[in-house]
Amino acid sequence: xxxxxxxxxxxxxxxxxxxxxxxxxxxxxxxxxxxxxxxxxxxxxxxxxxxxxxxxxxxxxxxxxxxxxxxxxxxxxxxxxxxxxxxxxxxxxxxxxxxxxxxxxxxxxxxxxxxxxxxxxxxxxxxxxxxxxxxxxxxxxxxxxxxxxxxxxxxxxxxxxxxxxxxxxxxxxxxxxxxxxxxxxxxxxxxxxxxxxxxxxxxxxxxxxxxxxxxxxxxxxxxxxxxxxxxxxxxx
Length: 236
Hints:
single chain, Rossmann fold, CATH 2.40.50.1020, elongated
C-alpha cells in the first residue's frame, strides 16, 4: 500500500523564504505543497479550505504573528516553525511545536522534521478537531483534546485543565462548546465542561443532580436539568 502524501502549507511574508522552502521540499517526493500564504489572515482562510497536514510557519509577520494564526483556528495542523528568531520560538514552544528550524533552514534538519510528520500522517487518523493551540502569556501549548479533562469558564476566557497545566484560553466556554464534539465533551453546568473519557465515577446527589468524579480526583457538579441529558449521553 502506497504511503499518503504530506500536504503542506507555506506561511511566510517573505516571497524568497517561501521559494527557498519550495526548493528544499522538492527533494521530498512524499510532500505535496498545497498552497502559500503571506500573512496570518490569508493562512487562516487557506487552512480552513485546504486542511493541510503541516504548516511551515514563520513566527513574526506583519498584521499578525504565527502565534496569532494558531490561536485563531479550531483545529491546528502539525507545525514546523521556520524562523530567524530561534530563541523566542524555543522559549515559547518548549513543549509544543513539532519542530522549530532556524533560517536559513538546513536540508538535513528539515528532512528529520518531515520524517517525524510522515510517521504521524501514516498513523490511523484521529478525531477532528485533533488538537487546539493555547497561548497564555509567553507560554504556548498544542493540546490533544483527549488530554483535556476539564474546561472552566472565566468570563471571556476558558481555563483548560490538562496534565499539570491550567492555562487560560482566549475563547469563551460557549464558543468552545459550539466547536467540540458533544459525544466527547459535556456541559455539566454554567461554568464547567468535562471530557467524558475522564469521568471515573458518577454519584447521585440531592435534588436529582449528579457529581462527576474525574480521574484526577476533582469533582464536577451536574445540575438537575442536565442530569438526564448526561445519563443519555453516557448511556446510563
